[in-house]
Amino acid sequence: MVGSKPRPVPEPLSSGRVSGFIGEGFDVYIMTATGTPSDLLRRAQPTIGGSVYMKPQDMAWEQTQFDGISIKVLYEAEEKGEMTCFLKWEPGATLPMHKHPEIEQTYVIEGSFYEHDGIYRAGEFIWRRVGSFRETHSDEGAVILAIYRKPNVFRHSSGYSRKSA
Questions:
Q1: How far lies 119's CA from each of 54, 77, 131, 140, in Å?
Q2: 56-164 adopts what CATH topology?
Q3: What are the E-state strand segments in 37-157?
Q4: Rg (Cα) of the chain, in Å, rounded?
Q5: What's the whole-model pTM score?
Q6: How many whole angstroms separate alpha carbon 116 and alpha carbon 133?
Q7: 129-149 tens-digit pLDDT
Q8: Contact at 8 Å (CB) between 144 and 87?
Q9: Where in the chain is the domain with CATH 2.60.120.10?
């Protein structure tokens, strides 16, 4: 930021290995006992296999436990509850009342869906506050990109169960 004081770089740890990340915003420091953060970055090499490429257009939609709603999972870390997925809503589909235990981020790719706070159309982005409750509907159908930090909590389940469509 213009006019802000630079933050001091933390002292390296004595373990001799990369031990974690700290920082705020784009100020990220890597702590290591083998040099300063800038030394480490100067020596860094690209991580072969460090990216996972997906072709969602080649993936099959899987039916969820909710009528008219199917899913393509792009990323999932079950032990943390994280998931990034496409959800496809058929016309007339409803996602029953549920709670958001963490924030949820949604980008509407096509169609629209609605709830008590409004109607969300293609090209719009919504994020849900921690602890919020809602029931959502789609009259025309929709495809959304959803990013979960923790799975939604429904009356009889958490998250989305799936079976091949």
A1: 30, 30, 20, 12
A2: Jelly Rolls (2.60.120)
A3: 62-64, 69-77, 82-89, 94-99, 104-115, 118-121, 125-128, 133-137, 142-148, 153-154
A4: 21
A5: 0.70
A6: 10
A7: 998 999 999 999 999 999 999
A8: yes
A9: 56-164
